[in-house]
Amino acid sequence: MSEQVLAPPQLVNVQINGVWHQFPKGTRLIEACEKVGSYVPRYCYHKKLSSPGNCRMCLIEMGLPKMGPERKPELGADGMPVINWMPRPQISCAQDVSEGMGVRTDSPLAQECRKGVMEFLLINHPLDCPICDQAGECRLQEFSVEYGYAESRFLENKVKKPKNIELGPRVTLDDERCILCSRCVRFCQEIAHDDVLGFIDRGSHSVLTAHPGKRLENNYSLNTVDICPVGALTSSDFRFQMRVWFLKETKSFCTSCATGCNTIIGTREDVIYRQTPRENDAVNSSWMCDYGRLNFGYLQSDQRLLQPQILSGEKLIAADWNATIAQAVVQLKHFSGWEIALLASGRMTNEELWLTSQFAKTLGANLIEIVPRRGPGDDILLSPDRNPNTNGARVLGITSEPGARLGEIVEGVASGRIKALIALGENPINAGLSLDQIKALPAFIVMDILANEATQLATAVLPAFGFAESAAR
Ligand code: SF4
Ligand code: SF4
Ligand code: FES
Q: Is the model's pTM score more than 0.85?
């Protein structure tokens, strides 16, 4: 079959602030300006959503080629089209570049327009930046400094609007701060497919609200908080927990399902305060689900295993790493090949899975399996496979069909043929074993993040890292 060659995208010439550039046809004007270093401020525009053009913050001066008598563009001394500038400003977020277009993003008219828009937006906005949870990442605050007037000319009383509204179980709304950009409304309609938000009332009394009888409770609700350009929508979980400028941001991945959404983890002094999505168009676009986003509290659980332990007489006692590893080795030395089984985990990284396979090889053990973890998925991001790395386990030969060999392990333990069980990041109860069966094992070695009901029956316990605590993750 002959290889198909894509035609290069058609390029158009556009003059931005006096300099000609080329962009592929279809490029949004606001994006074209940003690409060449002329950032145009915006509130309602979000590149992953439709463009209603309702905030007017992106006003620029624009012109189209001046046409000669033969309806052909007149060319200037530089051989490029002469631009016929429009007398009124235009928004740059709702139109694409076209041949011979001219743009001025920083002309006196554009600057005056921005100042005017800022002044209007701030008329009824409360002056509560010092106590607002968005401070530090608020577009209104930032653009006010960059493009606004230093003083307010508004002497009248501000319109008071509802505060501290629970829009849903995870999102809180301060209507006074809302600038009616509709990003959250469009996100719910276009991405979450849950038409739940809208505006009611007119003019300066307009407010954002949930439709009657509805709540913002879909599994993607916290993305509205990410894209709200001001402090109107806040995460009920993160709200007032930490000033954002204290957070250390680390690039990571969500490990709560097989999708692997790219994330940024916000920490302070080794405690996670929030996870937010990191853009990756090949995986999660700019979004992540609430379930994965909030699934980190267990790292601070009082059930964390923090200390290696070994069985002494009838009970587990604290020991150091060397002694615990040595004890586990002694226990395993009593058994060979078919007497040993390993429960691995689809939550392990490729590196951990590879080490596990090498460990099994060293022990001569061939009975090894991961524990499947399933839940309802959706057609947006959430995968029904709640293990992040089932594929890695498959590729590394630890499983062929997740869970397929668990029956063999349960049967082997029940019959007494398996004498040593090594549980790596998995609770054997979830694999189908009973506490009595586990208790009867001569060696039960546990390596895990949290204690579970089976841990107390272990003969050696090794604490493990959580997903955010190791550089390999
Ligand atoms: S709550 Fe935020 S995202 Fe929603 S319309 Fe208001 S300002 Fe825009
Ligand atoms: S879709 Fe999956 S990977 Fe993405 S945030 Fe949700 S649980 Fe995490
Ligand atoms: S960003 Fe263009 S009108 Fe809002």
A: yes
